[in-house]
Amino acid sequence: MPFEDELGEALRRTGDGFTAEGHDLVDAGERRGRRMLARRRGAVAGGSVLALALIGSFGAYANGLLGPGGGGDRGQAVADAPEPPAPRTPPPGFDRAGSGAVSADQLAGVFKQLLPQGRLSAIEARGTGDRMGGPMVTGVFDDGDGKGRIGFGLSRVDPKGEMADDMVKCPSKATSGTESCTSEKLEDGSRLLLVKGYEYPDRREDTKCWRATVVTPQGFLVDAQEWNAEEQKGAPVSRPTPPLTLAQLKALVTSPLWHPALNDLPAAGQSPQREPARPGSKAVDILSEMLSKDGIPVVSRDEDGTDLGYLVLDEGKGKSLVSLQIQPDSAKHPGMWADLFTSAETLPNGTKFLTRKQPGEKGGAGVVWWSAEALLPNGTRVIVSAFNAESQSSAATRKEPVLTLARMTELATSSKWAAEYGQ
To answer: CA nearest 324: which of 295, 357, 286?
Structure first.
């Protein structure tokens, strides 16, 4: 089984079983996001099982994938990233290295050629023969307006598989804290993702992280990121924005100069197609319809697939995030949510429900998190959450969420679900 298939399947199994008391739809959505991210990490790392440890926040490289991250200015020196103490021997089936026809020095040379005028220092690179990390280059670039780290990785993916889809799909703004994101199809059939975001979604530091990712019809994957600081984490901001514009990042990842290195990597095997979406209305549309009678203005709406939807409401007292997730029962493991409802109340129709109030968990100052969950007779879990902020990672904008627990319970236990699921 190809690497991305094995990694994706392992993460799906882990994600499917990762549900703990007190964690609701936003966490579940972020778990899906982490599964997507892990696939991205694996792809960018060139098939390395170390990828899960090598990448930090949203799409951000760390330790080893983009070099050690410390270190001073080493001018134009190019070197392989320091090897970890353990032998760098990949497990069977995970070696996705090429022949080594394109060296670290050659990749660094291409990188310099594609950058605008300026100085590139503290360079780290790996060629196509690297068996664990895959080909990559990172360095600190200074165009005269301040230093910023820039780096990229190369890999091969199944262009029609789920991993490729995930690599070029915009994350939900409700959980990722991105400023902007676009995903488009280019004239040659390639798919391009452009993201402006922050190293930390809660913006505990002002470090910005901008990203460009392209997947070509032949399965070439080029993923580049940049920061407005000399290091990804822990370094002071050295300029207002990262060095390259999004247009320049696009030109960097779509350049044909990477093709010799990409052609030296083995083609990825066929990976699974995305699973069919749950039939019926999207969660964001259901939530919008159900709240329309409340008459509270909707500031924004977002979604993460069919089953997870977000609305930001504001009746004039501050923005409040409300979200709905639908978690159908598992055909392979029926009753998978039952243990979460052992202390729940039961309605005459057999629906179980419970409510919670707890602090937010994503770093937003003063954020509180209210939730109402229902377990339908057919095993489907319906979860409604509300926060007293625009997102969990932003500061509270009001004392309490816009919806009461009573109203949230009405939504979670609504007769609407009988129409949706025949229950």
So the answer is: 286
| Euclidean distance between the first and the last CA atom of the chain, given in angstroms as a whole number | 39
| Secondary element (H or E) of residue 286 | helix 283-291
What whole-number distance in Å separates Cα of residue 256 and Cα of residue 48?
A: 24
From first to last of its 423 residues, the chain has per-residue pLDDT tens of 333 333 333 333 333 333 333 343 344 333 344 344 433 333 332 222 222 222 222 232 222 222 223 333 333 333 333 333 344 444 444 457 888 899 999 999 999 999 999 999 999 999 999 877 789 999 999 999 999 999 999 999 999 988 898 899 888 777 777 889 999 999 999 999 999 998 887 778 889 999 999 999 999 999 999 999 999 988 999 999 999 999 999 999 999 999 999 999 998 888 766 667 777 788 999 999 999 999 999 999 988 888 899 999 999 999 999 999 999 888 888 898 999 999 999 999 999 999 999 998 877 789 999 999 999 999 999 999 999 999 888 889 999 999 999 999 999 999 888 777 655
Token couple for 37:
């991210």
Cβ proximity of 71 and 52 under 8 Å: no
How far is 371 from 114, CA to CA, in rounded Å? 50
- Ramachandran region of residue 71, left (φ > 0), alpha (ψ -120 to 50) or beta? left
- How many whole angstroms separate alpha carbon 362 and alpha carbon 360? 6
DSSP codes, 75-102: TT---PPPPPSS---PPTT------S-S
Q: Which residues contact 323 (CB under 8 A, 6 or more apart)?
A: 25, 26, 29, 174, 287, 308, 309, 310, 311, 384, 385, 386
Q: Which fold has domain 283-421?
A: Protein Transport Mog1p; Chain A (3.40.1000)
Query: Residue type for 254, please?
Result: T
The one-letter amino acid code at 197 reads: G
Q: How many CA atoms lie within 13 A of 211 on its CB side?
A: 31
Structure tokens that stand for 379 in this block: 């095993």
Handedness of CA 33, 70, 138, 94 (dihedral sign): negative
Q: Which sequence spans correspond to the domains of the chain? A: 3-264, 283-421
Q: Tell how strand 220-227 and strand 208-215 pair up.
A: antiparallel
